[in-house]
Amino acid sequence: MLEQRIQQHFIDSADLKYQSAEPLSKPIAAAVQAILASVTSGGKVLTCGNGGSAADAQHFAAEFVGRFERERPELGAIALTTDSSILTAIGNDYGYNAIFAKQVRALGAPGDVLLAISSSGNSPNVLAAIVAAHEREMTVIALTGRGGGQMGRALRETDVHVCVPHERTARIQEVHILAIHCICDGVDTQLLGEQDVPT
Fold first, then answer.
1. Does the pLDDT value for residue 105 go beyond 70?
2. What is the 3-class SS of 131-187, one letter each residue?
3. How far apart are CA 90 and CA 94, in angstroms?
4. H or E element: which one contains 39?
5. Residues 31, 77, 122: CA angle, nearest 5 degrees
6. CB contact at 8 A, 96 and 125
7. Global model pTM greater than 0.85
């Protein structure tokens, strides 16, 4: 029984990824282009999310600053989820909804990108970060699910929305990490050219 349940998780995840490939390829490609335009002009990516999405934000920053699968010059990315002193100071003085927005205002500049991650699309502190990014003339790339929620409605025409067509958080997050890997690979391919990566 347990093994069948585990197998079903694999099947459901694979099915959603297969169903998402066509509708999400265009916005993911747009995300690659937005990030490429920023980093090749001296910009950087700020990224944020809560819980599993915080882990995804840190995962992205690590692969951007370090490397993804190929050696290349370092690229600028900062996960706004990692500095416990900043997070607790802002949370204590201004409230949890301000923890990302104040960092975006402090660190963001015109031409930078905010990678905002929320499986529901309704995280108040991520929404506040989007508002702050717009104030700083940054492009927003939103990774969401469940129809996009309030984040989908907060985006501008120049922003990019990668919305996973599913309701279940675990499945949405599994596609989010695949989308992040596609973005990293796409940026590397645009910078370095096509190349087979050892499997």
1. yes
2. HHHHHCCCEEEEEEEHHHHHHHHHCCCCCEEEEECCCCHHHHHHHHHHHHHHHHHHH
3. 5
4. helix 2-39
5. 60
6. yes
7. yes
